[in-house]
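Dear Dr. V.,

Thank you for agreeing to look over these. As mentioned in my earlier message, I'm a first-year student in the group and I'm still getting used to reading structure tokens, so any feedback on how I've presented them would be very welcome. I ran two proteins. I've put each sequence directly above its structure. The first is here:
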Amino acid sequence: MKVEHGNLTLTSNGKRVTYHNITDQVREFVASTGIKDGICALSSPHTTCSVIFEEFVHDFDWNGDELLQVDLNKVLETWIPRQLTESDYLYPGPKHVAFLQELGAKDPNYPVDPATVLNADAHIKGSLFGSSETLVIKNGELLIGSVGYLYFIDWDQNRERNRTCNMIVMGL
């Protein structure tokens, strides 16, 4: 059995939910491994991000978002509205804000500005959709059909930043 690791660095826009179509990059990574039969697992180490398998729909809105993604965001917004103030959700509590401010003094990935952690909605969406997908590889190809595509989603809308999608391919 052969095992190959890789990752993608993706930049979130920080203004709205960010969808990255990662299908081509994942296909290229799978091809580069030389593995013909096995599995490919994709995962996010970020608690406000998800990896999903969905249909590519060919139509986009004015922001460049696929219409199915726009519809998904619209539905989710009715169930899990965006957190705009500290009173919208219980999260983050005062102990967590203090922890993040302390962390931010040491790690530039965590700004000291407490408004950047008003993202309970992003955490809930990330929990609901999960952080990973596992796919079958047969004859060197991902078995994702003709319209199946892979997306990395950052649900957090509070700031632009780089995100990581981890990849592992295992097989023969």
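The second protein is here, in the same arrangement:
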Amino acid sequence: MRIGVIGAGVVGLTTALELQNQFRNAEIEIVADKFGEDTTSYVAAGVFRPGTSFSGPNIDVTRKWINDAYNHWDEIANSSEGGEAGVCSLSCYMFSSTDKSIVRNHYIEKLVPIYRQASEEELKICPGDWKYGSYFQTLLTEFSIYQIWAMEKYLKNGGKIKIQTIQTLISLQNQYDVIVNCCGLGAKTLCSDIKIVPIRGQVIKVYAPWIKTAFYGEFDTYIVPGYQTVTLGGCRNFDSYNLNISKYDSASIRERCEALLPSLKTAKVVKELVGLRPHRDPVRVELELLHSANGMLKVVHNYGHGGYGVTTAPGTAKYAVNLVKDVLKGHSRL
């Protein structure tokens, strides 16, 4: 049994590990042209905080993806491998001066250990006319660390890697029994999927070890401490393919984040990064059978997570692998 996984971002890696867990005797191969620092996942801050507009085919499936994902990351964080995997707990504040709904999140209010209204004293932690706020405890997955841990685990389990640019899915027809397509933004051309849209993001990584708590303000402003640096963000440029650092976005991010936490004015910039979030509504996790003159190719799609790939990858991975199980039922070698 041969199963190919297209894509080596957080969705592809997590799906490959789940496939290894469920198909112990199968040969799993990740096929991608971008790994590690070249993936969109590398830019992500990695906080478990799905957007309230994040959606799968229906609300029940969406909640299952999110709940399964949280439980997966939480299990790693509380294991002996948590530090090595780059997964840990994180405290966060969200503030708004305009709308109470901005600081609410119906997906995680009853999922994370603590999610409560910020007190009057807590609303004064950061400068600004904050009228509404929430405090919650969640999880952080730093992809730069997780990628190394996950890849080592994948290879140790017998996983294979192929560096290749895929032109068409059907070209893989004779190479694998089933394909799991985690190609992210690449699905726009590979699958001719007009629903997938890039949402450009830019962040600044700074050295500020004194910051231990994450803060979210309005206008897509966020400050997220990681293992080695603090991520300052951000922006959401819809349908933008620009991968260049914008000095205007840099200036805006610094101004907004320093207004939220003035101590950041002394923080040294380590690097700036840009990524194109693969947004699709709904996220596509479904089976497709592709036919050609040479037969049929079984494809399970798992892409379109937007800015919530790190957050939801384990949940959609489990769902996708169950679809693989369904399509392979009755296979003579299972």
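From my reading of the second output: The first helix runs from residue 10 to 22. The domain at 2-330 is CATH 3.40.50.720 (Rossmann fold). Does that match how you would interpret it?

Kind regards,
E.
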